[in-house]
Specification:
Length: 417
Amino acid sequence: MDNGLNRILYDYLLKIGITESLASYLNLLALLVAAFILAWLLDFIIWKILRKITVNLARKSRTNFDNFLVVNRVPRYMAHIIPLLVLFEFIPFAFIGFDYGGMIALKILQILFVVLTLFVVKSFFKSINDYLKTIPRFKDKPMDSYVQVLMIFAWIVGIFTVFAILTEITVWKYFTALGAGSAVVILIFKDSILGLVASIQVSINDMVRIGDWITFDKYGADGDVIGITLATVKVQNFDKTITTIPTYALVSDSFKNWRGMQDSGGRRVKRSLIISQKSIRFLTDEYIESLKKIQLIKPYLITRSEKINSYNLENVVDKTLAINGRNLTNIGVFRKYVSSYLENHPAVNKDMTLMVRQLAPTSQGLPLEIYAFSADKRWVNYEYIMADVFDHLLAALPYFELEVFELPTNLKALYHP
C-alpha cells in the first residue's frame, strides 16, 4: 500500500498487534463508513440549500412550473448527485489492495447513477406534464401518453446502459443486437407499440380528448373520458363505473364521440309520434272554425282557408264530397301546430334545423317525426325538455281528432276494431 491518509488506521492497528489481513479489512470498513457518513452529510446539506432556493424561487416566480418541479421531487433527486460523485472519487482511495472489490463498488455506483438519472428524467417529464395540464389548450390533450412514450425510450437506454456497465460491452452493440432481434422485441412489446401508434393517431387526428363524452358499445362504455395513456383510455360511465379501453381500439374499432354535439348550439331531438291512420280525415268548415280558438294556428287557418276557398270557387269544385278540390286535413293542421309550438318553445334552438315531417307509413301507422335541437345540452335538462314537448303534443292530439297507434290489448280487438 502507498503511504497516505488511507493508511493511518491500518498502521495503528498493526502497532497494537492486529494481523495485517484483519487490519486491511477493518481499515476498509472504517473508510467506507466515513465515506457514507460524509456522503449523507453532503446530501442533507445540499438538499437543505436546494430546498430553500427552489421554494423561494417558486414563491417569487410567476409561472407554476417550478412549483411542479418541487412537488415532483426534482430538486431532491438532484441533491443526490454530488454525494454520489464524492463516493466515486472515494472508491479508489478506500479500496487500495482490494482491486476486485473496488471494481464491483464502482459498477454499483455507476448503476445507481443511471437509476438516479432516470428518476430525475421521470420527475422532470412529470412536472412538464402536470404544468401543461394547467394550460387550457393542453388540458384535454393526452399528455400522459407522450410522457409514457418518452419514459419508455429513457428506460430502454437506461437498461442497456446498466447491461453495458455489468458486461463492459458498449451500448451501441446492444442497440445493434436489438435491431437483429426486433421481431422478438415487437412480439414482447406488441401492446405498447400498438398503444404508441394509436396514441399518436388519436392525438394527430384529434379523435378523443380528456373530458369528451364517448359511447363505445363493444366495451360497454358510455361516459366521459378521464384519462388517456399509452395503453388504455379510462371512461367514467354515467353510473360512475370505470371502463378501461385499449388505446388502439379507438383506431381499429368504431365508437361515437359526442364532442360535436357539446360544441354545437344544441342537442338533437329526433323522435316520432306514430299516428293511427284510421284517425286521419278531411276537416269540415265547422271544425276549422272550432280550431281557430287555438292561438298558435289561428293565423295559419285563416290565411289557408281563404286560399283554399278561393281556389275551389274559381275552379267550381263540387264540395258535396270532401275529397274534391283542395282541403285541410287534421294531420296537416296538426303538423303546422307542432311546428309553431316548437318555434315558440323557449328551450328549442331556433338557429338550428327545426323540422316536422312525415315518414313513410308503416303497418303500425304514420310516423310524424320531430327533428329539432334543444338549447340546453345537459343530459338531465335535455331529457326534461324532450319529455315536456311530447307530453304536450300527446295531450294535444285529441283536439285534432287524431290518435296515437297502440297495439291491441287482446286478440279479439284484432278482429273487432
